[in-house]
Amino acid sequence: MPAVSKGDGMRGLAVFISDIRNCKSKEAEIKRINKELANIRSKFKGDKALDGYSKKKYVCKLLFIFLLGHDIDFGHMEAVNLLSSNKYTEKQIGYLFISVLVNSNSELIRLINNAIKNDLSSRNPTFMCLALHCIANVGSREMAEAFAGEIPRILVAGDTMDSVKQSAALCLLRLYKASPDLVLMGEWTSRVVHLLNDQHMGVVTAAISLITCLSSKNPDEFKTCVSLAVSRLSRIVSSASTDLQDYTYYFVPAPWLSCKLLRLLQCYPPPEDGAVKGRLVECLETILNKAQEPPKSKKVQHSNAKNAILFEAISLIIHYDSEPNLLVRACNQLGQFLQHRETNLRYLALESMCTLASSEFSHEAVKTHIETVINALKTERDVSVRQRAADLLYAMCDRSNAKQIVAEMLSYLETADYSIREEMVLKVAILAEKYAVDYSWYVDTILNLIRIAGDYVSEEVWYRVIQIVINRDDVQGYAAKTVFEALQAPACHENMVKVGGYILGEFGNLIAGDPRSSPLVQFNLLHSKFHLCSVPTRALLLSAYIKFINLFPETKATIQEVLRSDSQIRNSDVELQQRAVEYLKLSSIASTDVLATVLEEMPPFPERESSILAKLKKKKGPGAVSVELEDGKERGELNGGGDRGGDAAIAASNASTPSPSADLLGLRSAAPVSGAAPSAGSLLVDVFSEAGPAASSAGVNDDGFLSALHAPEASDSPLVEGPGDSDSAPPSAASEDPAPPLPESDELLNKFVCKNNGVLFENQLLQIGIKSEYRQNLGRMYLFYGNKTSVQFVSFSTTVSCPGELQSQLNVQTKTVEPLVEGGAQVQQVINIECLTDFIDAPLLNIKFRYGGALQNISLKLPVTINKFFQPTEMAAADFFQRWKQLSQPQQEAQKIFKASHGMDTEVLKAKLLGLGTALLENVDPNPENYVCAGVIQTKAQQVGCLLRLEPNAQAQMYRLTLRSSKDTVSQRVCDLLAEQF
Amino acid sequence: MIGGLFIYNHKGEVLISRVYRDDIGRNAVDAFRVNVIHARQQVRSPVTNIARTSFFHVKRSNIWLAAVTKQNVNAAMVFEFLYKMCDVMTAYFGKISEENIKNNFVLIYELLDEILDFGYPQNSETGALKTFITQTGIKSQSKEEQSQITSQVTGQIGWRREGIKYRRNELFLDVLESVNLLMSPQGQVLSAHVSGRVVMKSYLSGMPECKFGMNDKIVIDKQGKGGASEEAAAGKSGGGGGKQSIAIDDCTFHQCVRLSKFDAERSISFIPPDGECELMRYRTTKDIILPFRVIPLVREVGRTKLEVKVVIKSNFKPSLLAQKIEVRIPTPLNTSGVQVICMKGKAKYKASENAIVWKIKRMAGMKESQISAEIELLPTNDKKKWARPPISMNFEVPFAPSGLKVRYLKVFEPKLNYSDHDVIKWVRYIGRSGIYETRC
């Protein structure tokens, strides 16, 4: 690559940077930058074109300013210009700026892509490389879209230079990682594989990264690479250190390439072709042999390179897991590393051995290193290495060495780091359970575990102990005895108390024969711990006490005394209090038979996978516990009964009771016993049979009462809202319309109170039809203007105006109509109406047109009345009267008595009332002759509830109309409107 | 209570570190440096809370003063103390700079020992401090002097010693005000207030009892019933308007002022410390005389050009002269060139500050002047619109924009033989701009 010549040093840039560095304060720096930016702006703005050198210099300065953390919003164009320069330095700076500052700016991206395309198609390898680097550095989707097709072509083309191929491979890798969907597989894939045969080692190294990435996604397409990789590997491995001059690193031939090849091979199963396989095994053997050779150099780089290949080879061997010979050799090699000076090597050796231990071929070989590993666990200074040692111990454990390993781990636990203690505890618990030869050992181990690291013993561990003890009859007596002894220590961990409480509660009778552990002694021992424990443990102890009452009737009085004490029966914790009360009652009411049934010994837990193992898996993530495979194999052997987990029951009881206490005794839920005492839950109801139903019915009443209270409130709200802001002033009747409304327009208006469609107006010339619909506070009205003559109307115009106050009450929008109406034609106009608040007047419609030269001017009232915005409300009689009473203030009511102007036909009346927009309520009024309606007027500002009652008097041909609403103006207006209708 | 006090230079190096309480550890020094001085984002709040420790800082040029505490102290008290500390240091060695602090660090530690005791502020009166913390080497004081200092510092009037004698009894009174304004482009006042100080420099013999009077509205209104003649005299000499009295929104006094008397009869009486002191501070918001009116006119011509015209009008008596006038017109961030024409003074585009700075040496009242500028812009691909920051202005005028007038300052010295008439008194008004901005 051409080096930057001295003349290109860009003195201005150097001066600027040193100025910035010399700035005393942030403010001074900002000032200097502002000055420079202004200078660059004036230069870029300047009329005379800049030469490439200064353009480069200024773009460099901008880049520097941007990297200092300031926004740059110009100069992109100049940078793009630099891309088309022929000088390397200018092009390089241009690409640098683009890579750093590019954003998906539409026009520029196009220009940039164009420049990149030009460079890619140029024959200059340097420029091609620059372009490829830029694509890889940006790596955006846009870039991938533009070039994902182009780059594979460059990669596999025969005439491409090696350095360009290298860049192209890495660029493609980057695009593939960024947007895999855009890099399409094609015929180039097969040719990419053949790059493994390339003469140039750099190309091979770049290509292999790409192939590894691609083949991990679609292994089948790249299957052929296996044999190529093997032959390449064998060529490298067998070469002398001087063969690959440039690619020999501290006497190791091409270490990076070897590692990558080995890693690529790990993507595939062992080769089926015998020849290939033989060659590969030969390679691996050579690598292992080389590790034994004395080092050619004392430099750390040499051994690092050599070990890198070795570890990669070992992981390949482990991956294949089919060559016992190689596995054992690898294991021995690692064994040597276990005592190496280098901490890193020891760590790696332990880690690799962990995986080796799970292989059936090398398991025995790994076991030979047990002493070293135990030593490592004890003496290693680095905690991460100790962690690995613990992992390895766990992995290499089997029945033959379980006791030793568990003992070592237990002793280590006392000094272990806090960060790994919980994991260690789990591991010890699992190993103890899995490889237990006799259960007394198991119980001892776990109790020891709780004693040593009680804080780190999770719930699962002690659940598990109890499950196993309950499921194994032979160990119960021993467990009770051991627990009793363990509890005698002055300071016990709470988990120990839990285990003790549970086990003594179940199996205390097994050791009661000994006068040193008589029932009363047992109880006193447990109760001495009681006050130091947390609530869940106390709850468990209370359950243990009631079990004691069953097991040893002689303790009944003592225990009842304890239960009866204020600190139990009036405990502030509900769970404890409830248990105390229930157990006390249970012990005093129930007969011994019932008691024996209720408090029967726990049934064996169903068999399940160990919950501890599940927990360990969760802790370490999948794959970390490699032993689980082997675990499956050996499960059945000894531990038939031991390996079943009853924790589901525990989990279930935990979930069913709201309290956090684990109800291990199963008293509360799912007691599988006879009807005499079904379960504690129903027992409670039985015991309090008098109080129970009463309380529950009271509860129901309460609810009913409440809902009855709430319902009307909720639905009343629209009605009650009104009075607060009912101060809208009375409307002014003055209209300032140019043409006074037709005298009959009021009548026209009344025609439309109860209907929405019809003919609004008609004379010899014009007919106006109307169609309208309303929803909530919005309305839409279609007006149809029909020209009844055969001559066209000229300059036809309509205006809708809201006189006076109406402007603030109604929002009316009209669309203009065509100024020409042909003879016999009809034009349509849409009017949108929004009701802001309640109103009285109607908007005015003014129509002007010329008919035969004469100006016609018609003014009408648009039939928009307040009742159009009614929403019907259905309600029951009780509701209706309740609301009716609520609206009892005099101004809320409007009443009119008037004479019927039409017939008093029931159906007609009903239709009219429905047309009003309200809901006609049946069976509300005691007098069936009367009509009762309810509705809510929806306006933008508020909702006004409205109740209506119409009492016809057929004999006198009179009506009495009563309206009540939350707003006085509304009552009055609706009443006035309706009075005209009947 | 203040747990510790640190002084840093601009790089964040500690110059002075004094810890008063054990709850403040050494790491507090670093915490402030890392989180405030070297913070990625500029820290604008003067109070910072880091790990349950509060840091109160003030900045004087390049120097940071930080008071540290773990307790719930009165923040106003801490800041008052820090300002006092600055005053004391200025009085001792002039400008607060890194150089000066390094040269006087022994003195500063001595001062810190004296003015803060276990974190509780003590006497920080410069005059009093100077009597026993001296800069001129160790001068063995006589028993008599020592006992005098003790009685003064512990006595009722800690700020003045007895037995001061001058041949000429003289006193200077400066009314220093800074006027703050925010105005809309249409000339509507959005907010305006004046914060002022009355600084007194006295060279008076003995223990004089002084009484200070000004045209405070409450006092004038109270006297309005009785002494009308005095009021007429007070209203005569006016800078801007013929205002009779002013409404003071709030005020604070030097510790020598008898507050009980002020509360009861609103009269300001005191025995002044010798030399300079700030007698009172006040703030007014009503009827402010705005010395200048700025009329901006900004026109955007296309995407690449901006025309700015700014007219300033002086609004006070033609006989008075305003000085050091500076108008700062912000320019857009993509300015690529500026041409300026102004009638008076000098104007220049300062790229480093993104502003046109127009300076006029002096300007008489009731005049107007104008500047017009053409700003060329570089088209950017940034869609952000220019925020149009306000035009700000600096000036100095020889009157008080609040309208405050000194009516009298009477001196009584009952023991010595001089009367009020023998004292030579000087009064000076200076009105400066605070944040004086007009939106455009």
From TrEMBL, chain A:
Keywords: Cell membrane, Coated pit, Endocytosis, Membrane, Protein transport, Transport. One of its GO terms (molecular function) is clathrin adaptor activity. A 1,2-diacyl-sn-glycero-3-phospho-(1D-myo-inositol-3,4,5-trisphosphate) binds at residues 11-12, 43, 53, 57-61. GO terms for cellular component: AP-2 adaptor complex. Residues 647-662, 721-737 have a biased composition (Low complexity). The keyword Transport applies. Residues 624-663, 714-746 are annotated as: Disordered. Pfam families: Adaptin_N (PF01602), Alpha_adaptin_C (PF02296), Alpha_adaptinC2 (PF02883). Residues 750-863 form the Clathrin adaptor alpha/beta/gamma-adaptin appendage Ig-like subdomain domain. Gene3D superfamilies: 2.60.40.1230, Leucine-rich Repeat Variant (1.25.10.10), TATA-Binding Protein (3.30.310.10). It is a peripheral membrane protein. One of its GO terms (biological process) is intracellular protein transport. It is found in: Cell membrane; Membrane, Coated pit. Belongs to the adaptor complexes large subunit family. Component of the adaptor protein complex 2 (AP-2). Adaptor protein complexes function in protein transport via transport vesicles in different membrane traffic pathways. Adaptor protein complexes are vesicle coat components and appear to be involved in cargo selection and vesicle formation. AP-2 is involved in clathrin-dependent endocytosis in which cargo proteins are incorporated into vesicles surrounded by clathrin (clathrin-coated vesicles, CCVs) which are destined for fusion with the early endosome. Adaptor protein complex 2 (AP-2) is a heterotetramer composed of two large adaptins (alpha-type subunit AP2A1 or AP2A2 and beta-type subunit AP2B1), a medium adaptin (mu-type subunit AP2M1) and a small adaptin (sigma-type subunit AP2S1). This is AP-2 complex subunit alpha. It comes from Salmo salar.
Automatic annotation (TrEMBL), chain B:
A 1,2-diacyl-sn-glycero-3-phospho-(1D-myo-inositol-3,4,5-trisphosphate) binds at residues 346, 348, 350, 359, 361. GO terms for cellular component: clathrin adaptor complex; clathrin-coated pit; plasma membrane. GO terms for molecular function: lipid binding. The keyword Nucleus does not apply. Pfam families: Adap_comp_sub, Clat_adaptor_s. Keywords: Cell membrane, Coated pit, Endocytosis, Lipid-binding, Membrane, Protein transport, Transport. PROSITE patterns: CLAT_ADAPTOR_M_1 (PS00990), MHD (PS51072). Residues 168-439 form the MHD domain. CDD domains: AP-2_Mu2_Cterm (cd09251), AP2_Mu_N (cd14836). InterPro entries: Adaptor_comp_med_subunit (IPR050431), AP2_Mu_C_sf (IPR036168), AP2_Mu_N (IPR043532), AP_mu_sigma_su (IPR022775), Clathrin_mu (IPR001392), Clathrin_mu_CS (IPR018240), Longin-like_dom_sf (IPR011012), MHD (IPR028565). Coiled coil: none annotated. It is found in: Cell membrane; Membrane, Coated pit. One of its GO terms (biological process) is endocytosis. It is a peripheral membrane protein. Belongs to the adaptor complexes medium subunit family. This is Adaptor related protein complex 2 subunit mu 1. It comes from Oncorhynchus kisutch (Coho salmon). The gene is AP2M1.
